[in-house]
Design goal:
about 425 residues; alpha+beta; eight-stranded mixed beta sheet; five-stranded mixed beta sheet; about 40% helix; elongated; binds histidyl-adenosine monophosphate
Amino acid sequence: MNDVLPDEIGRWQRVEQIYARTLHLHGFREVRTPYVEPTPLFVRAIGEETDVVEKEMYSFEHHDDALTLRPEGTAGAARAYIEHGVQSREPLTRWWYAGPMFRAERPQRGRYRQFYQLGAEIFGDSGPGCDAEMIDMLVALLNELRVPGIEVSVNSLGGASTRAQHREALVGYLTPRAEALSPSSLRRLQSNPLRILDSKDPRDRDVVRGAPSIHEFLDAGDREHFAKLREYLDALHTPYTVDAQLVRGLDYYTRTLFEIKGAPEKLGAGSTLVGGGRYDAMVASLGGPDVPAIGFAAGLERLLIASDIEVPANAIDAMVAPIGASAVSSGLELARALRRNGIRCEVDTRGGSLKGQLRRANALGARIVLILGESELAEGVVQVKDLDAHLEERLARGDAVRIVLDRLVAASRSVDSRVPS
Ligand code: HAM
């Protein structure tokens, strides 16, 4: 679990802003659900035999409640969708969310026990058009975040009957080869053989190379859905590859499945930035209406490692420097007038030496320092130092705010939405 200190928060906020804007452009609205949900919700939605449910959930009992810190956002979103009868009010629902998730995994670079996800879910559209739109939106988002080397993989898992047939064929293929499997895959052979396809262990990779592909078992509807998805992606010129071995760690997926990787030299080739897919049966299986759904989630810490975006580190635009205790009151008043005009500023109410205050202005990235010493107070002026342009001038106190604002705007320094003074 990480602390995010103010020096790093600018990049977090920038990514969150770009994310929210992108999602709003696509008609998604924000939903906020609790960090804690009943444990059975995750067991039913994600699947009893998944790593997440078996090993990674932070679960606890409180009085008679079995509770879990959410390991992901989809189950909670589906619960909220059902609980509030959203389907009876709108046929199509597009929700996005951002927030912490919790999984007791072995920590490593890009893998944490509390991590942030940026996610979204669409309820009520079964067609491949929205699958393609979602993937295309994510590619555009990652490009805007300046993530190099984006690679999209797509696959189709078909529906429940396809999965059952594939599972049977897979067990039939793997059983005579069981001795060559890693111990953890051997354990999964009966409980969750599909996950063996996802193993990174070289012993398993060798065995699964010739395993039956799920594509052999897709029914006509699944095939048509997948063909249409590819057709739409081709028409949009969204780059992707079909990976017939792609499976994911959560059991709720049906039909479309996708993953996006990027920046392999920073993250390592195995690290996925975004994972998602269709889960057409989950809402009904949780006791809700028979509503198809698709969604994705991106790991925010991983996006930050992968992204080349930079955010200026300056915390303030201007520093008001009262020299001595007698100037503090005028300093507070001047700082208030600057802020009313959207200028980010700090006033050093300790009223210390000019040298110390200039040092602090520099450290905070202030461009302008407004100095109020004894002589300035007596004359009703303020001494304005422009640290970038190396200029110094004495301005009447009544004019200072307007002139400082003009200077900052001319230097295209971000000045917050201005409130007229
Ligand atoms: P997921 O693949 O489990 O999918 O997680 C999505 C993303 O969250 C991963 O690709 C990764 O970037 C990030 N992530 C997962 N675990 C960690 C971790 N321990 N540390 C850092 N980042 C992590 C889901 O969670 C699904 N709910 C996605 C979805 C939404 N499918 C349909 N709708």
